[in-house]
Each structure stands twice: as C-alpha cells, then as structure tokens.
Design brief:
The chain is an alpha/beta fold. The protein contains six helices and five strands.
C-alpha cells in the first residue's frame, strides 16, 4: 500500500487542465488517474476502477459533466464527485448538490483551493 492520501480520477477534455490538476493533486499527496471524457471515465468505473474521488469538468464534448455525474452516481452512489466549473456554469450545476454532488471547485483553481475542496471530501 502506498502513502497516498487517496486516488482522484480527474475527468476533463482539456489536456492542460488534466496536467495541472494532476500535478497539483500529486504534490498534495494524492494518486491521480485521468480521463479525457465522461464516456471514458464511466467505462473505467464500469470495468472496476474505484477511485476515492472524481474531479469532474462540466463542459465537455460528447457526454457532458452533468450526464457523466448522473451515470457515475447511478453506478456507484457512494463515490464522491467534485464538480470543476467556470463561474458561468455555477448556477446551472448548483442543483446537482441535491442529487449528491459533494462540492464545486471553481476554475481556474489554485493549489490551496483544490487542497481545501478535496480535503473536505476525503478528510
């Protein structure tokens, strides 16, 4: 077993965001897995991947973040999901807290914000 604080699956269609989020989370002591789309994330979870947390982008081509969250939540209701969102989408996804989203991380995020949000969920 590693000394990791937990495993975070980062789901975002932008390579730069995947890279930055991965670097920040690794620096904070988490193991990181990435997925470039909602479809790929769901596929991985269906095939047995069980991260401790999913950091999920809202605006993605193909299956968007809302649909991805709902599918993940239906498959693994105990799996916490943090939504990564730009300010403009915040109102539109706020209702997801009633469906089980564990919180939001506003983009662009810094290490302190990410550490606090992920820490709030994973302890």
């Amino acid at each position: 077993m590693s000394d990791s604080k937990g495993t975070v699956l980062v789901v975002d269609d932008e390579d730069l965001v995947l890279q930055v989020a991965s670097d920040l989370l690794r620096h904070l002591g988490y193991s990181v897995l990435t997925s470039p789309s909602g479809e790929k994330a769901i596929e991985r979870i269906r095939s047995g991947l069980m991260p401790d947390l999913v950091l999920l982008d809202v605006i993605m081509p193909g299956l968007g973040g809302v649909e991805t969250f709902r599918t993940i939540h239906a498959l693994k209701p105990e799996l916490p999901v943090l939504i990564s969102t730009g300010y403009a989408e915040r109102g539109a996804v706020q209702a997801l807290t009633e469906e089980g989203v564990r919180g939001f991380v506003n983009k662009p995020y810094n290490m302190e914000t990410l550490a606090r949000r992920v820490g709030d969920v994973l302890g």
